[in-house]
Amino acid sequence: RLNADNARFLLLAVLILLYMLCGAAVFSAIELPTEREAKERWEERLENFTRRHNLSRAELRHFLREYEEASVAGIRVDDIRPRWDFTGAFYFVGTVVSTIGFGMTTPATVGGKIFLIFYGLIGCAGTILFFNLFLERLITVIAYIMKSCHERQLRRKGVLPHNGRRGSGTSEVDSLAGWKPSVYYVMLILCVASLIISCCASAMYTPIEGWSYFDSLYFCFVAFSTIGFGDLVSSQNIRYESQGLYRFGNFVFILMGVCCIYSLFNVISIVIKQSINWILKKLACKCCHRCQRRLFRSRRNVVMPGNVRSQRNISIETDVVNESDTDGRRLSGEMISMKDFLASNKVSLAIMQKQLSETANGYPRQMSSNSKQNGFSGGVGALAIMNNRLAETSVDR
Questions:
Q1: What pLDDT, on the 0 to 100 scale, is given for residue 197?
Q2: Which of 2, 55, 289, 333 sees the fewest Cβ atoms within 10 Å?
Q3: Which reaction does it catalyse (predicted)?
Q4: CATH number of the domain where residue 109 is located
């Protein structure tokens, strides 16, 4: 019988596959007609060119193939900056360690390719660790600000004294120590922050790079999400107005955008995990009802149906109350109350290795009541770090 983790994994794999199939159908319907039209126009232009200059199609195609090889090496028709001067190489390593990988610059020598393998191995790992630590501190700041606003609202209502001490006998004050901001509020804040950064960066790219504002927004998402198609790449012209200031602003915007989008992706992944847990619980409840009905039908001659139904209803109602209470807390998005955030922000490699080893070997994991209620236990890598931080944080008054 599949356990909960395997069921969650299989359901997520099926949903991702369906999501990819739907995306492929949509993009194929949108982009395929344009691709066919462009190919027809190109074939017509190629035919006219060979006829006008009395060239064979084979010779022209051979020449164009050589130009494609030169283009890969960094040769362009328009004037662009050298790809492998110091500033160009610095831009390249930035796209490597951030896992963006635009593809406009690639090493052509064997030595460069070998060095890239080892350089990217260490650089990508260090940058991912930096993103994780940035995510922890960002959640710390957001949780602290939201909890301060919540306490201020309680003081305005007169529930919490102005000196910050909790009174006795008030349920809202008693629950303030374990108060956690909603995951949806954190997701909204990260969405707004990412949108503001993207809009400001697009306002810079539009006049300097000569792109439309929509193309600039498109570039911001592709770059900040580390997808990095390479169809639009910033800071590639040989000259800019205020060139030093622009390149510094480009670096800052890309760094801030990647950090925010990375954090946003991790928060969205927790929401997806909650949704999957909810779907699995609904499926499990339906399966349990069907199995119990079959059991009651098979044992109808042994036990009176009325007595069985009454006992079954009592137990199921009790379980549903408990589960609904738990689900209410989990699906309401309660997420953060900073317990150890402000005290310690270190990541223990030994603890992470132990958790990964126990997960791989199938050992039972002990979860606290808060982690069970909030549904943030488990995960590997950035999701595991975020789950632990979001489930265990609180501030003692």
A1: 96
A2: 2
A3: K(+)(in) = K(+)(out)
A4: 1.10.287.70
